[in-house]
User: Fold Release factor glutamine methyltransferase from Komagataeibacter sucrofermentans.
Amino acid sequence: MKDAMTPAPLNLRQLLRNATQQLHAVGIEAPQREARLLMAHAARTDLAGLLRIDTLSEAAQARFAEMLARRLRYEPMAYITGQAGFWSLDLAVSPATLIPRADTETLVEAVLDHLPDRNIPLRVLDIGTGTGCLLLAILAEYPRAFGIGTDLNPQAAALASFNATHNGLAARSTMLCCNWADGVEGPFDLVLSNPPYIPHADLATLMPDVVAHEPARALDGGPDGLIAYRALARVMPDLLAPGGLGVLELGIGQNHSVPALMRAAGLDIVEIRPDLGGIGRALVVKK
Assistant:
């Protein structure tokens, strides 16, 4: 017989309703879905598995309450769960890196279209690799490719190495902690980069999830948002093999300024590919 003081098991529906209301009150988009994702992670299951349970254990309830409190402070979901999906990959994430975004998959799509032979032995460089998402997505698609990822942050480089191992790509990748491509010898068939490109004055206008939690160094593109692109324009001509491709992520309104920098560096503009929102997102250049 249960002790009369033992609390009744908590009902998931009520917990979800309460969490959804709290998330909605602070302006979180899709609060019901976010509440379900948090609960699934706390219960150590997925959304489908959540449908098969009615109550949470005390330990899972405590995890859910702690995770919900973090989300109510606008901490990104990916940092709370420690993981994010990108392309076909499951990636670990941390506050040392930007969270991979669907818009960045536009760069992967551009590479696949311009290099349709999946069996070519590409030599790939990803400058500012972060989680390693771009480099690892390319290696997953080109089984004979080898790649190097660089990042100024040693924690990011270590995380990218972990992600390479976790996705079975460590044997074909090396992650280095360095400034841009210092000490890296080319030539490369493909150079990738998702650099910091947000003008400094615009940082304060970003969503609270981003401005308060994601690393400013990976976002801040300087007064005009172009500091990183100027650095890339200086090094890419020497890093690319003849006929090699560079694929760079662009920010809003950079469709003219960044191509102009690349042309001045002697690179040909091949394409500016829009993302699903119609924003020019992937700049493809060629040596």
The chain has a mean pLDDT of 93. The longest helix spans residues 58-72.
